[in-house]
Design goal:
This protein has 600 residues and is mainly beta. The protein contains six helices and 40 strands. The strands form ten sheets. Strands 16-15-20-19-18-17 form a six-stranded mixed beta sheet, with no helix packed on it. It has a five-stranded mixed beta sheet with strand order 1-34-35-36-37, with no helix packed on it. Strands 2-40-39-38 form a four-stranded antiparallel beta sheet, with no helix packed on it. The radius of gyration is 22 Å and the shape is globular.
Length: 600
């Protein structure tokens, strides 16, 4: 495989200031010494051009310095580095620290929001937060209680704040935001509380709401054009969403947007995925439940949807579609294409044309996946683009109060939100995965605002007839749709990956190891055990002429919810407590940033 060209790739990665992108963001991203956006660039590749640390010397890494966050719950996301300042966040209560990298990490300022602790009770799967954003001299924090705050990057002064949702209805936040042009793109959590998911654009300068697009509901709320918005090349038609719900169920239909966002400046399109339909009991919501479980491509200026693709119609297993979209320019069957690659919770990896929404590849990226035999790839077929469901593993067909056993993957997916990385040097994607299956018993549940609206009991366990562990770290070819190599792990790999120009790929493990592997072969080159399990995303930056690697440790998230919240009943944590019970034998709570360097 070959990339189209260095100029095209540079534009895609945000390496030049496109007129259609936020110039402060593209300028910050173009400085390879910085880590100015959570996913590395607008294309979500999590790739760094820094190359001091190589596959030959990475074995010599040592701890340069550490920083305690003072918070004990799960630490997802990563710090940002802009100029000589590192911005570090915590889970609830969402404290923000600005550290002076030119002065031994001195705390320049801290922001400590005052939130009602009642919000913790309506956060699904730990009090995690996936990180800050930067644009136009401001740092943006989206708090657990959905308060969106713009802080002066130099002083920490609050420039403006706005409330994005209502926690009394179950609306919360765990995700970062994305600055695009003059707008801040913001999602919402709460799919397990029967909210109506949405994406909102706010003014970066003032906090004014500029547009809001819902995931499910009437066309005017969806911001779709029935004749111009397409699904697999065909217009979606009038009432495409509400016609697939019974009555007004769409009003509590879920489809939340708590994942990652990508942006293509040339196409001026934002890409993201929507989450599960509410409730988890499929019998209570007949129909395809559009547009939950869907990839959206939206115009950044207006919010209007260009195209959509629903990956898991009438989801029966809680396979949220919120994982990151990774944008690359590659040859596909000998033709240059603008590609989008997405590793869905449902266990299928999708490669699409991001301009048109054409489906090019849909393949299993874990051999344990069994709920489907695959996706119909025949454009002439009436079921084109739909996965074929295996009856044995259909919670819909087996019915309420029936325990459907041996479903792979579990509800937390073959990959949850932990982001993958892509290297333009190898044309491979590096994917942290869960190798976990489940038993799933749906039951009848009633909706009440602010109360859990789940309707299923789950238990989780390692995929049978395999290596015995609950995770793999894989290298994936998105054009061929195949695994190139796979590294087994005892627990799910819940850390975001980092690929570098030094031909090294980094990731963390739930036991707390930071690992480095050869980008081509997967050979393990380095590992170091940090004080707590790693569910944060590895990042890199350069300071004073030296490359550093940084990662937050602090076990938690859905996989570590038992430890994080002190839960012991195996079915608590939506089934994760029992599945990950052994994790307590390997790590304990504690929030810390660990930064690594090569010896002088």
């Amino acid at each position: 495989m070959k990339t189209i060209g260095s100029l095209s790739l540079a534009l895609l990665l945000g390496m030049s200031a496109s007129a259609s992108a936020n110039e402060s963001v593209t300028e910050a991203i173009s400085n390879t010494k910085q880590w100015a956006i959570q996913t590395g660039n607008y294309a979500n590749t999590r790739y760094s051009e820094l190359a001091q640390i190589t596959k030959d010397n990475v074995k010599d890494l040592k701890v340069a310095w550490t920083f305690s966050t003072g918070v004990l719950r799960g630490h997802e996301g990563s710090p940002l580095v802009v100029g000589d300042i590192m911005y570090v966040h915590t889970p609830f209560p969402n404290v923000v620290y600005a550290l002076d990298l030119a002065n031994e990490g001195k705390i320049l300022w801290r922001y400590e929001p005052k939130q009602n602790p009642d919000v913790i009770a309506v956060m699904c799967c730990d009090t995690v937060y996936r990180g800050l954003a930067y644009a136009d001299g401001k740092v943006f924090l989206h708090q657990a209680d959905t308060t969106l705050v713009a802080l002066d990057a130099k002083s920490g002064e609050v420039k403006w704040s706005v409330v994005n949702g209502d926690p009394t209805k179950g609306e919360t936040n765990t995700a970062t935001v994305l600055p695009v042009k003059d707008k801040l793109i913001v999602g919402i959590s709460g799919g397990e509380f029967g909210v109506q998911g949405h994406v909102t654009a706010y003014s970066i300068e003032t906090g004014e709401q500029l547009w809001r697009a819902y995931s499910v509901g009437p066309d005017d709320q969806l911001l779709v054009d029935p004749e111009k918005t397409t699904h697999l090349g065909k217009p979606i038609g009038k009432d495409s969403s509400i016609s697939t719900w019974e009555g007004d169920q769409w009003k509590i239909g879920g489809g939340t947007t708590w994942g990652w966002y990508a942006y293509d400046p040339d196409l001026n399109l934002i890409y993201y995925g929507t989450g599960n339909p509410s409730t988890w009991n499929p019998k209570q919501r007949p129909g395809d439940n559009k547009w939950s479980m869907t990839i959206f491509a939206r115009d950044a200026d207006t919010g209007m949807a260009r195209w959509v693709y629903q990956m898991t119609p009438h989801d029966e297993w809680d396979y949220d579609g919120v994982n990151e979209m990774i944008l690359t320019d590659q040859d596909f069957n000998g033709t240059p294409r603008k590609l989008l690659t997405h590793f869905d919770r449902n266990g299928l990896a999708y490669t699409m044309d991001r301009e048109t929404g054409e489906l090019l590849v849909a393949e299993k990226y874990d051999p344990a996946v069994n709920w489907t035999t695959g996706v119909d790839m025949d454009p002439a077929s009436p079921t084109y683009g739909r996965p074929a469901v295996v009856a044995q593993y259909s919670t819909e067909q087996n019915g309420e109060d029936t325990n459907t056993t041996g479903v792979c993957p579990a509800a937390l997916g073959t990959k949850d939100q932990q982001p993958a990385a892509y290297s333009p040097k190898t044309n491979l994607f590096y994917v942290p995965t869960n190798h976990v299956c489940m038993d799933y018993e749906p039951f009848r549940v009633s909706y009440a605002a602010g109360q859990p609206y789940v309707g299923a009991t789950l238990s989780m366990y390692p995929a049978p007839d395999s290596h015995g562990g609950m995770g793999n770290f894989i290298a994936w070819d998105n054009v061929k749709g195949e695994i190139k190599w796979s590294l087994p792990e005892q627990f799910s790999v819940w850390s975001g990956a980092l690929a570098t120009a030094g031909d090294v790929v980094f990731y963390g493990t739930l036991e707390g190891y930071l690992k480095a592997v050869d980008a081509t072969t997967g050979e393990e080159l380095f590992k170091f055990k940090t004080p707590s399990g790693i569910i944060g995303n590895v990042m890199t930056y350069e300071q004073g002429g030296k490359q550093y690697i940084g990662v937050l440790s602090g076990v938690g998230g859905w996989a570590g919810i038992g430890l994080a919240a002190g839960l012991t009943n195996p079915t608590e944590g939506l089934g994760a407590v029992g599945g990950y019970a052994a994790l307590s034998e390997y790590t304990a709570l504690g929030g810390q940033l660990t930064v690594f360097e090569l010896p002088d």
